[in-house]
Sequence to fold (400 residues):
Amino acid sequence: MDHEAPTMTDPGHDLITITRRPDTVFVSGQGAWLTDEGGKRHLDLVQGWAVNSLGHSPALITQALLAQSQRLLNPSPAYYNRPLLDLAGRLVDSSCFDRVFLASSGAEANEGAVKLARRWGSSMRSGANEIIGFEQAFHGRTLAMMSASGKPGWGEIYPPMPGGFVKARLNDIASVERAMTPLTAAVMIEFVQGEAGVVVADPGFVRELRALTAERGVLLIADEVQTGIGRCGHAFAYEHFGIEPDVMTLAKGLGGGVPLAALLCKEAFNCFLPGDQGGTFCGNPLMAAVGLAVVNEVCREEFLAGVRERAAQLSVGLQAVARDHGLLGERGLGLLRALVLPSDVAGEVVAAAQALEPVGLLLNAPRPHLIRLMPALNISAAEMDEGLALLRRALREVLG
Ligand SMILES: *Cc1c(COP(=O)(O)O)cnc(C)c1O
Fold:
């Protein structure tokens, strides 16, 4: 990353530089739409990176926030509170898991999953502590999660990096077998590698991985931070693959826009001792009340059927766009999809889409040749069509 001197026109000149952002400053959002300070509206197919499952500022969330904020903000994680217990119960009822720990970010939930696997390995597997992850994987930005991730170059940015993380290749079961040692405690997987460019695991590979980990007594940890809570057309993506992980993490869509994450496990792996795990904001009722409202809405079968309908519309629409504009195709699961461009122009397409008039289109480019689409799960059919039409205009501007 190069370091440019801040300019007077850069609205972020007081911020520590962490990434390049457009000059736009957003002031309000409603459903699929965001409005900037100049009053221009943008159709948002990023939604905070698959965070706003119900779109911007849905009444369901604003009401839950208001009601809970007037009742109880935070009694301390040393005490039970009602939304914490209700959300845990709701997650247990709608998943294959028995126990829940609430946290505030995906990286924090994943750290908890690794701690749980190491705690279990030390007591049940004579000290096993290694975690097998996958090349290109993304698990968050704490030091340990940067080690757990498989992003090229991430191992060298902040040395020394935490050890105990080894890598295998997605969809290559032999590479997982080779990586296994008597010290392996767990395998950690994203069923759809989001940051890597929406790379969907083969169902056959996932079933082999489940069988292999069960046979070797190794935990299977599913990082469903991006894929969970309806994003892939099921409450949880593991349902699509017809397997049950031992441990799962959730974040992004769980809070529908607020910082909320969860670590879930089967009873057999409920092995933290008192004091092993915690955090000041873990299980606070304000965020838990929002999570409960989101899960109650999203994990209904009719809602999930709607997600699958919109996903089919988006997939068919993207296939037509790819055909008409000479692109390489589209891929994904549910409403987590990507359009593969013929060259490294994704950044230009994102900029052209946002600059469209009179309304802009917000897109994300996780890789130089790839556009990722993560609309609100309740986007309307008409808004989806409008998004596809705006996407065509942006592609025409860049590709001719
Ligand atoms: C976003 C993401 C994370 C990190 O979540 P944060 O809330 O940013 O810490 C971890 N895993 C996956 C798969 C993600 O998409």
Remarks:
- The mean pLDDT is 96.
- The pocket of pyridoxal-5'-phosphate is lined by residues 105-107, 110, 138-140, 190, 194, 223, 225-226, 251-252 (CB under 6 Å).
- The first helix runs from residue 47 to 50.
